[in-house]
Design goal:
Elements: H1 15-24, H2 31-44, H3 57-68, H4 73-80, H5 84-87, H6 92-99, H7 101-110, H8 115-118, H9 122-136, H10 139-153, H11 160-180, H12 184-198, H13 200-214, H14 219-233, E1 239-244, H15 247-257, E2 266-272, H16 275-288, E3 290-291, E4 297-298, E5 311-316, E6 322-329, H17 330-338, H18 381-390, H19 396-407, E7 412-417, E8 420-425, H20 430-438, E9 445-450, E10 453-455, E11 466-471, H21 490-501, E12 532-539, E13 542-548, E14 555-557, E15 569-573, E16 579-583, H22 587-594, E17 599-600, E18 602-604, E19 611-620, H23 625-635, E20 639-645, E21 652-661, H24 667-675, E22 680-685
Parallel strand pairs: 2-6, 7-11, 14-16
Antiparallel strand pairs: 1-2, 3-5, 4-5, 5-6, 7-8, 9-10, 9-11, 12-13, 13-18, 15-16, 15-17, 19-21, 19-22, 20-21
Helix pairs in contact: 1-3, 2-4, 3-4, 3-10, 4-7, 4-10, 6-7, 7-9, 7-10, 9-18, 10-11, 10-12, 11-12, 12-13, 13-15, 18-21, 20-21
Amino acid sequence: MSGSAPRGRLPDALEHVAQTHRSHHPGAELDALRRAYLLAESSHRGQMRKSGEPYITHPLAVTLILAQLGAGTTTLTASLLHDTVEDTDVTLDQVRAEFGSEVAYLVDGVTKLEKVDYGAAAEPETFRKMLVATGDDVRVMAVKLADRLHNMRTLAVMRPEKQARIARVTRDVLIPLAERLGVQALKTELEDLVFQILHPGEYVRTQEVIRAHGAGPDPLAAVAESVRAVLREAQVSAEVRIRPRHALSVHRAGKKRGPLGPCDFGRLLILVADEADCYAVLGELHTCFTPVISEFKDFIAVPKFNLYQSLHTAFADAEGRVAEVLIRTHRMHRVAEAGVIALGDPHPRSVPPGPESGTQPAGAAAPGPGDGERADPTRPGWLSRLLEWQSNAPDPDTFWAHLRQDLAQDREITVFCSGGTLHLPAGATCLDAAYARHGERAHHCVGARVDGRLTTLGTVLRDGDALQLLLAPEGTSGPSSDWLDHVRTPAARIAVRRWLDAQPEPSSVPAEASPAATDDGADDAAGAPGTAVRPAPASGGARAAVAVDLPDRPVRLARCCTPVPPDRVTGFTVRGGAVTVHRDTCSAVGRMTAAGRDPVDVRWQSGSGGYRVTLQAEAFGRPRLLADLTEAIAVQGAAVVSASVEPPREQRVRHRYTLRLADASTLPALMRAMRGVPGVYDVARATRPML
């Protein structure tokens, strides 16, 4: 391990790494690797791993993992040095001076933050730092994943409780990151190692099942030979392999399907030269065998969000054996195994060096926007979203919780929205899309159309949906606590939570009692001694005067029941001293009274018009119902603030409208006009806010 060698010659310990590296990059210049190894070996000399091996074996093993995946020289150089700044006297400035700014950036990206400085926040803040660095250069995460894989391989020397803690973080954070970056080779091995530590009993049973299957001849071998014969006859040049399932995949298949069949322990992998051959192979298989149509998926025409491309299918042969098949080109296979690592240097230069040589003149400036900012073509949409929301989550615990939640979403959808396309995690709603498109302007979102149909903001979007978001004028509306039940992305959840936390309404007040915005600077109107007549905001800046037996208190009309004169009303004091006014029949009144909240006497006073009311129309479904209802509303002079239509049930449909009225006395006539629309059999005041 001393690595002593004549100047310019590779140390013996590096030979295997060099051979593997040159199998992917025949013309790679290896001097940077030689110098990096010599620095790492001398810096770590005397340090031992818990297994008793010299510490230098760890960076060597990490570098070999990356070399096997086809990483470039810059990445391998950084992996040899990845622990020097953290565990030795070598400084980042030394690394930068000797190997250039790119290597220094990668080493710094994977260097842990000290627990002495960060305490319990060290781990989440270290991951935050790595993710931010990954946003500029995905090779940072490539080094981290290889580092964690080797540590997991050698985890048996740790205490069981520490093994379990490391395995849980690997399961919750690093395996999803490996999946999202497309590094399947690392992901599958990490999954098996975590499975072994966290579920040892099930792991042992699964291995026994695999060994029992392997004791006899593999029936997939005969199926593979049949496929080769079919493709030879069709003159399609292809390589047919048997790809065994790894342990966790076998375990999951057993739980999903029950006892596994003889062909369920592996898949056929067919590799061809180009994309056209993929479809030619698919055609031959579906012609010569019986296809299982439900198993067909085309990830070539529509790649996964992690760059993965393949055709998936399954067929039954003449003997009834069902085989699953993956069809891809050789390049697709490299990307499927190594993900972003297979794409090489993400930072093209004006004068291309050798294959990702990665060295720059000593003291070169760190990459940045001031000097021709380098665009990373491998930076996926999910990473951009993650980097955006993490900047709004300064609290380490909040960041850590939202990171795990975000990474748990393993599928992505594309939604067509005005101004372009949005890439969102599966399960995202119209509200998530609003915050992804508009940022904090989404606070004023009042409705949405999906594929031309009016829908609620909580509607879950599907891949390919066309979305139109409806925004109210700024200051006329805002989120309610209900929105937290309808957002899935951390960016949207953090934005809604920050807005709600900035409002005076306490979290203990029911969502139905969410007030409209207030104008605390309004002057008190004249009234009886000890009584304040306050202009309570109703909608769009218009106010309705409400008398309150508490002077100098701001007043708000509750959005849950949208009271208007001459409704009987009750008030309750909330945080900050404001008074929220509800209709007596509102369900929030009963809940607040039961919770021990003292009511405040409030009553209507004559004042300037302007009221907001929510109406619910029950009708039999028919064409043009929505158009006829909105026309009836417009004829009565009411303005639609927001609207929603529930899916029809038994040919009945429910419409909800939040409307702005200039004069509360027009409400009865408005409701009569809506009841007069053909098909409408009831119109009533709603007692619950709309999304």
